[in-house]
Structures are given as structure tokens and as C-alpha cells.
Specification:
Layout: H1 2-5, E1 8-10, E2 21-23, H2 41-44, H3 47-53, E3 62-65, E4 73-79, E5 88-95, H4 99-117, E6 122-123, E7 130-133, E8 146-152, E9 155-162, H5 169-186
Antiparallel strand pairs: 1-2, 3-4, 4-5, 5-9, 6-7, 7-8, 8-9
């Protein structure tokens, strides 16, 4: 499995691709029967559920599973398109063969973030085993293509946002933590974050 780590690559900040690292080929063959694999994220986190969080202040316009479905990788894309913008959310889950491989992937992504932005991201200390929210802008409380990165046992989890011209960072971070909580509550083997009282920031 370690050879697969080198095949994770960063996604550029473009309209239909999200910040984070997505598997190019984490298995030898495409996987069609999900009985013994990570579950389908679009089924775990329904479009109605994500729509209720209103990450961009606009209604959901569409959703679809990532076509690059592998035995140990599943993702879902949620679109909030309007006439003038194409904001999107992607939720990705990778299950590794060992905790050390998951840690290697997490450390690699963290190192790349530091290299790209010249400093460490915002660490979220109450999320096991480790988590951070990415930075990608100079304006206070703004991030246009950013997201939550989580190490959780055998898993690495990515909740990524793109295409939002307003870039409300606090709202995106809070939405990503709600998504993480729901994901952990629905998938055996994921350890949920410690519960804290929080509210979604107002939409700018």
C-alpha cells in the first residue's frame, strides 16, 4: 500500500476540482461491489443533508459520486451552482492498510501545505487523531478554495470547498466540522470529534 502514497497528487484550485489530495490509483482495479469497501459517501451524506447546511447560502443544484471509485476510496461532489458562480463541496474518504500509511499521507499533505503557503495551517486540536483547516488567501476570514483535512485511525478524510467568490472561511470551517461529525456517526471505525457547542456563522 505504501507505493500508493506516492500516487496521491494535489488538485489545483480550478472550477470543478477541490483543494486537497485525491487518489489517482489506490487499487489495481476499479471496484464495483461496495460490500467490503468503504461506503458510498453520497449514500452516507445525502444531498438533502448537505443542502440543509447551506455552505454557500444557495440551494444545492446537483450531486454525484466521484467516478474514480476504488475499494479503499469513496467521494461525493455536491454542487451549488448559480447563474454567476459554481461553488462546490467534495467529501473524500480513503481507508489505508495501516495507521502508519494513513499517517504518512497526512504528514505529506501537511508538509505540502506549509511549502505552498509559507506556514502551518490552522490546527483543530479536538478532532482525533489530528486535523487542520487549510489556508489559501491573504484576506482575513476568506478562503476561496480550502478545506478540512483529517487523520482518523486508518482513514484520511477531506472536506473541500471551491468556486465560492465570497469565501467565508469561518462558515466553511464550521460546515466541514458538521460534515465530519455526521460522517463519523455513520461509518464504523471512525472516531467522532469531541462535541462542542457551535453555530454556523452568518452568510456574508
Amino acid at each position: 500500500m505504501k507505493k500508493f502514497v506516492s500516487k496521491i497528487f494535489p488538485f489545483a484550485c480550478i472550477a470543478i476540482v477541490f483543494v486537497g489530495y485525491k487518489p489517482n490509483n489506490l487499487s489495481g482495479e476499479k471496484y464495483t461491489d461496495i460490500a467490503d469497501s468503504v461506503p458510498e459517501i453520497c449514500n452516507i451524506l445525502s444531498p438533502l443533508l448537505i443542502d440543509s447546511l447551506m455552505p454557500f447560502g444557495t440551494p444545492l443544484s446537483g450531486s454525484f459520486p466521484d467516478p474514480n471509485r476504488w475499494e479503499n476510496y469513496s467521494a461525493c461532489h455536491y454542487q451549488f451552482f448559480t447563474a454567476n458562480a459554481k461553488p462546490q463541496v467534495a467529501v473524500r474518504l480513503i481507508k489505508w492498510a495501516s495507521k502508519s500509511e494513513a499517517l504518512d499521507e497526512y504528514k505529506m499533505n501537511l508538509s505540502r501545505h506549509v511549502e505552498s503557503w509559507g506556514g502551518p495551517p490552522e490546527r483543530i486540536h479536538w478532532v482525533p487523531d489530528s486535523a487542520y483547516f487549510t489556508d489559501n488567501g491573504q484576506e482575513p476570514n476568506k478562503c476561496f478554495d480550502c478545506g478540512l483535512v483529517v487523520l482518523n485511525g486508518l482513514y484520511t478524510i477531506y472536506v473541500s470547498f471551491a468556486g465560492d467568490d465570497n469565501g467565508n472561511r469561518d462558515r466553511k470551517k464550521t460546515v466541514s466540522l458538521y460534515i465530519l461529525e455526521m460522517l463519523c456517526a455513520r461509518i464504523p471505525g471512525l472516531v467522532p470529534p469531541r462535541t462542542i457547542n457551535r453555530q454556523l456563522p452568518k452568510i456574508n
